Amino acid sequence: MFTGIIETQARVDRIISSGTNTDFWMECLLTPELKIDQSVAHNGVCLTVVEIEGNFYRVTAVEETLRKTNLNLWQVNDHVNIERSLRLGDRLDGHLVQGHVDSTATCIEKRALEGSWLFRFRFDKAFAALLIEKGSVCLNGVSLTVFNLGTDELTVTIIPYTFEYTNFSAIAAGTVVNIEFDVLGKYLLRRQSLENHS
Asked: Lumazine-binding domain spans which residues (predicted)?
């Protein structure tokens, strides 16, 4: 479980395909604090640390993960948002994030405001029922508040700190990001669906 509060960024150092899996070697300042078998969110995707060498560590993404997320678009030297899993007793400064990305969204607008940045994203309208105005969404691992919500578009604003310390500074129109919808909304929608079919 995560919170959507990014700790740092990691650089993609190597990408190695093996069958339907892909291994990513990452360089990160937090590597000395990581352990084998630890869960770490990468752009919001929960991946397991399987090998550590100095300041580098390796994670493996399976075919399903590659299909549903933007990991298949990563290139060497890309920077990825990193968050370690939540510990009991930690403050929940964002919202409950599972690290189970639902789909991707595409940036259709990036606009500098006076002291912040506005981003507008288009997503698959099949997920529209999982979003509400002023509700939470996780984009590239960052917990954000939705506004100007449409059937397949949403808007978020980014404060200067988040813009500087996450990879939102590199996002432009056309950039594909990972999106995870609020888990509470998923359970409510599932319950409603079951009740309607009972």
From this structure: 1-95, 96-192
Name the nearest CA neighbour of 121 among 176, 163, 180: 176
Q: Is 44 left (phi over 0), alpha (psi -120 to 50) or beta?
A: left
β partners of residue 110: 119
Q: Convert the pLDDT of each residue in 63-73 to its tens digit.
A: 999 999 999 99
Domain regions of the chain by residue span = 8-84, 103-196
- Residue 86 DSSP label: P
CB atoms within 10 A of CB 60: 16
Condensed to tens digits (0 to 9), the pLDDT of residues 60-117 reads 999 999 999 999 999 999 999 999 998 777 777 778 888 999 999 999 999 999 999 9
Identical fold for domains 8-84 and 103-196, yes or no, is yes
DSSP 8-state class, residue 87: P
Sorted by sequence, the CB contacts under 8 Å of residue 42 that are 6+ apart come out as 10, 24, 26, 59, 71, 80, 81, 82, 141
- AA letter at 122: R
CATH architecture of 8-84: Beta Barrel (2.40)
Going by C-alpha positions, the residue among 132, 138, 170 that lies closest to residue 5 is 138
Running DSSP on this structure, what letter comes out for residue 85? Answer: P
